[in-house]
């Protein structure tokens, strides 16, 4: 057993990486990346979005999001339009092709659930809830590291 195998962070990293690779295999026939799929899911479920709203929902910065949306627009899945009321705001909408893909990709969540061993909706909700709690806790640690360092009595390098 490798030393990293006993680290929570490595288990999360390995699970995340392998999950993304599984999505890659499932999405490859449509020439979609995992982040592009997430953008489509957001648009299918929540409707039109602003670029900034989509970036916030997907936790992507504009340097990553803008080129991804440009590729999706070139592929015919979305349109981007500046809003007349405020030209700084860009709205993202699905095209007819983007809407059609919802049915074509409907099997993907089921494949991921079966592949991950989640046998029912309750077990999926439990895992999602635990991961969301972890995300909130890690965000708090990221934003307020000194609180945790003090709580565990960690030594920090001299200033």
Report the portion of residues in β strands.
5-15%
Summing up helix and strand content along with how strands pair, one would put the structural category as mainly alpha
Helix proportion range: 55-70%
Helix segment count?
Answer: 8
Unreliable runs: none
What radius of gyration results from the CA coordinates?
Answer: 19 Å
- CATH topology title: Arc Repressor Mutant, subunit A
> What about the largest sheet?
3 strands, antiparallel
User: Which homologous superfamily in CATH is the superfamily?
Assistant: Winged helix-like DNA-binding domain superfamily/Winged helix DNA-binding domain
Please give the CATH architecture: Orthogonal Bundle
The total beta strand count reads 3
Compute the separation of the termini in Å. Answer: 38 Å
| Gross geometry | globular
Domain tally: 1
Task: Describe it.
- With 159 residues, the protein is mainly α.
- The chain has a single domain (3-117), classed as Arc Repressor Mutant, subunit A.
- 64% of the residues lie in helices and 8% in strands.
- It is built from 8 helices and 3 strands, in the order H-H-E-H-H-E-E-H-H-H-H.
- The chain has helices at 8-27, 34-46, 51-58, 62-74, 96-104, 107-115, 121-143, 145-151; strands spanning 49-50, 78-82, 90-94.
- Strands 1-3-2 form a 3-stranded antiparallel beta sheet.
- A hairpin with a 7-residue loop joins strand 2 (78-82) and strand 3 (90-94).
- The protein is globular, with a radius of gyration of 19 Å.
- It starts with 7 loop residues before the first helix and ends in an 8-residue tail after the last helix.
- The relative contact order is 0.09.
- The model has no long low-confidence stretch (mean pLDDT 93).
- It is found in: Cytoplasm.
- This is MarR family transcriptional regulator.
